[in-house]
């Protein structure tokens, strides 16, 4: 009886292990995975930046407009050097969150250096919170399409 119980147990364990086994992806493209620095799951580490209303609320409208123009120009520069993958504003909320960035780096220190180039962040018109974030390595692929879907540019 012990042998039968042991065999049944081992059979159940093998079913569980096989059910959890990884299945190869028939659509896997090794060159594309390498291009986007994907791990075996098609993912990679980024830095998620949450932009918040900053502590500097005393600037004139003209100065704030100038800082935000520089903020937008800096975002364009970061896209061109493949460091800014996703960006966008947030709707009104009670946390004073203004927008997000997903930066193409896994290093919080590098993210801090990249954010030093943003005039609105430097002037404390925007403050930031940063987190490591694990997401699809193919996020950058949307940038090509995003340039073609908007009738107007910022």
What are the salient characteristics of this protein?
154 residues; alpha+beta; Alpha-Beta Plaits; 42% helix; 23% strand; elongated
What report would you give on this structure?
It is a single chain. This protein has 154 residues and is an alpha+beta fold. It has a domain at 44-138: Alpha-Beta Plaits (2-Layer Sandwich). Helices cover 42% and strands 23% of the residues. The chain contains six helices and four strands; from the N terminus they run ααβαββααβα. The chain has helices at residues 2-20, 30-35, 61-80, 108-115, 119-122, 142-149, and strands at 43-53, 84-89, 97-103, 126-136. Strands 2-3-1-4 form a four-stranded antiparallel β-sheet. The mean pLDDT is 88.
Largest sheet: 4 strands, antiparallel
State the fourth-level CATH superfamily of one domain: Dimeric alpha+beta barrel
Q: Which structural class best describes the helix and strand composition?
A: alpha+beta
Could you list the spans in which at least 5 consecutive residues all have pLDDT below 50?
none
Summarize the topology.
Elements (H helix, E strand, L loop, with lengths): L1 H19 L9 H6 L7 E11 L7 H20 L3 E6 L7 E7 L4 H8 L3 H4 L3 E11 L5 H8 L5
Antiparallel strand pairs: 1-3, 1-4, 2-3
Organism: Pedobacter frigiditerrae
Pfam families: YCII (PF03795)
Family: Belongs to the YciI family.
